[in-house]
User: Fold this.
Amino acid sequence: GWRALLLPQLNRQSLYVYGSEMAVEKECLRQLQSGVFVIHPFSLMSYYIMCMMAITFLNLIGIPMEIAFLDGHSGLAWEGFNVFSDTLFLIDVALNFRMGIITEDSEEAILDIKRIRVCYLRTWFIPDVIAAFPIGYILLFADLHYNNDDNPSKTNKMMRILMFVRILSLIRLARVSRLVRFFNEVEKVSNANLEVVRLFFRILSLFMMIFLLCHWNGCIQYFVPMLEEFPTDCWVRKENLMNATVIVKYSWGVFRALSQMIALSYGSMDAPTYVEMWIVMVSMVSGCLMYTVLVANATTMIANTDPAAKEYKSKMSRLEHYMAFMKLPPELCLRINNYYQARYGGKWFQERDVIDTVSSALKEQILVVMCSRLLRNVPIFQSRDENFINSVLTKLEYEVFLEGDVIVRQHVPGDRMFFIDHGQVLLETDSDDRELCDGDYFGTCVLTKGKHLATAKALTDCQCFSLSWADLRETLESFPDVRKD
Assistant:
């Protein structure tokens, strides 16, 4: 029934945390057996976080606009939205006492009510209560009382009270902490194990914070002269904006804010008033902070992207120092650089390390996809047992040869055979020459431990897999039937 909405769902993130479908089912049973009303972080109820994030963002945009530009004439729709938002935030505070927690160092969700309560009270409770203060109800009741009162003295008193309450409603901007928290929670309950998703949320949160900073600054530009009842030397009167529309006023405010934040100008040819001077200084400081945060985050994102390429550049730098120290000739240095480029393609990795970190089943599948077709082209491996082929695959070694490299020499004892994955090889014998390409093989005299009958030279950069006689003999020991054949 409805309790299924509170249980963890089978998705990529739950599988990433718990490891298997069976483990997710055990987590569901663990929550059901607890017998208490707790919302699991990976349940369907957790998706309300995204709705709360959208509502919070609308609040952080609309509240400064309402206070600065609408002057109490926001309309019934906006007042209704304020009341709805306040109600939703109050409910959210209550739900957080029943919301399970995923910690960084924990492999399972915290579902114990006491631990959840203590953790919430120590972290986000006070900011949440401040942000959820029901200013919308106060404004609604005050507006209704103000509109129904005909006494002039009471009307003036109520106007002052309303102005104080509207300034007090700025406390709702504390919901920006909720926005940061929502971003962190959405990152946890989404496919956050994917680096692309994590990077997307970081960039999105960064630009949303920059937008809010510019938006608030633009609203403050107009709000402060409004508190002074628009003196004659304020920028609003100088720009003839007293009777302008809200869009025009807001556009001018944001223009002045951006001009000050990026230190181009303060937005007017005239000197600012005393109060405006402080606004200009605050804008410049906030602009410097914004620029610093932007550069720091951009640097961090760049530094954390593509670690394989960074490792490759680090290895190449060490190689350059080594070649310079050993005073290798330029031609050899160039061939070494070309080898690394052909071998790793600008990304540093070790096949053996990658293969060793996966399961035996996945390792077998990887090798079958990469090399099975190459072995099947060799007559001695055709129509052989699948287990024998898979055992041989694990013995293959990946090698790269540059154009002009001599892979094997004629009349030299052979200790291995080669399977060409990509590239071209020229076989030179006393009688003729023959070109080999993708899927061909050479060096088969290794089976008799004899000598190579031809010289093999790479015509292009060549990627091969090699099989040594010792490894093949070791594999044959485990398959006596194949060895007999």
Remarks:
- The longest helix spans residues 195-227.
- The chain has four domains: 1-186, 191-302, 307-344, 361-478.
- Strands lie at 397-401, 406-408, 416-422, 425-428, 433-436, 441-442, 455-458, 462-468.
- The chain has 20 helices and eight strands.
